[in-house]
Automatic annotation (TrEMBL):
Keywords: DNA-binding, Plasmid, Transcription, Transcription regulation
Organism: Azospirillum thermophilum
Residues spanning the signal sequence: none
Pfam families: FCD, GntR
Domain called HTH gntR-type: residue spans: 12-80
SUPFAM superfamilies linked to this entry: GntR ligand-binding domain-like, Winged helix' DNA-binding domain
Keyword Transcription: yes
Molecular function in Gene Ontology: DNA binding; DNA-binding transcription factor activity
Stored PROSITE patterns: HTH_GNTR
CDD domains, per the entry: WHTH_GntR
SMART domains given in the database record: FCD, HTH_GNTR
Protein name, UniProt field: GntR family transcriptional regulator
Length: 248
């Protein structure tokens, strides 16, 4: 599909592709905060697209808090404080750098510690019979897929989503949807530690059983234990990785 410059709308995939290229460059620091992007014609020429595709991509990134435009100064990268870090695209782009990846995982673990025990407590107070059954189905999928590194993580994420759904808060569920990209990386990293997934099954079950018996304090405590062990698994994986690098 041709660009608007030639009388037609640009292809959505082309705009998304330009946004991804620029978004990754910004997230990785190639265009640091307060720097100015190349001009629209320069970017169009460098990326092999029409100017309108660049223009629409810039609008998309501005909506994510990455860019702002000024007639005098051009297109400027926003400070990190303005970035919408719960945007799934931005989270994905930010994971390209090992340093950014580690920092985001640390921040995710802090966020989970602040939110998920209360989510578990709310679920214990509010979960319906159907919602409890859905959590059991997700847990059974975790058990069934324990030897599949991809399917087991899918089931784990579904378990936590079902827990957030049972807490009956649209805002909390929106937060979960946003950070599920990072949650997948969190689980994959933790599972690099031997038997981490299998040992965590009992902790998930403890959360679920507390929710089912309407024990809000017990559900929160079980979730704290689960999160503590998740952090420990990740730290062990990091320590092992640093040790291997030191031997090279």
């Amino acid at each position: 599909m041709k660009d608007r410059d030639s009388g037609e709308q640009p292809a959505t995939s082309r705009v998304a592709g330009v946004a991804e290229v620029l978004g990754r460059r910004i997230a990785e620091g190639r265009y640091p905060p307060d720097s100015t992007l190349p001009t629209e014609p320069e970017l169009a020429d460098a990326l092999g697209v029409g100017r309108n595709a660049v223009r629409e991509a810039v609008k998309m990134l501005a909506g994510k808090g990455l860019l702002r435009t000024s007639r005098r100064a051009g297109t400027i990268v926003q400070p990190h404080a303005e970035w919408n870090l719960l945007d799934p695209d931005l989270l994905s782009w930010s994971l390209g750098s090992p340093q950014a990846r580690e920092r985001l995982l640390d921040e995710l673990m802090d966020l989970r510690w602040m939110i998920e025990p209360e989510v578990a407590a709310k679920a214990a107070r509010r979960a319906t019979t159907v919602q409890c059954l859905r959590m059991w189905e997700a847990f059974e999928a975790m058990e069934r897929e324990r030897d599949d590194p991809v399917a087991s993580i899918d089931a784990d994420i579904l378990f936590h989503r079902r827990l957030f759904e049972a807490a009956d808060s649209r805002l909390l569920l929106s937060v979960f949807t946003a950070f599920s990209v990072l949650l997948r990386v969190n689980f994959a990293t933790a599972n690099e530690h031997d038997n981490a997934f299998v040992s965590n099954l009992e902790e998930h079950k403890a959360v679920l059983e507390a929710v089912q018996r309407r024990d809000a304090d017990g559900a929160a405590a079980a979730m704290r234990k689960l999160l503590t062990n998740n952090r420990a698994d990740i730290e062990r994986v990091r320590a092992q990785s640093r040790g291997e690098m030191a031997q090279v």
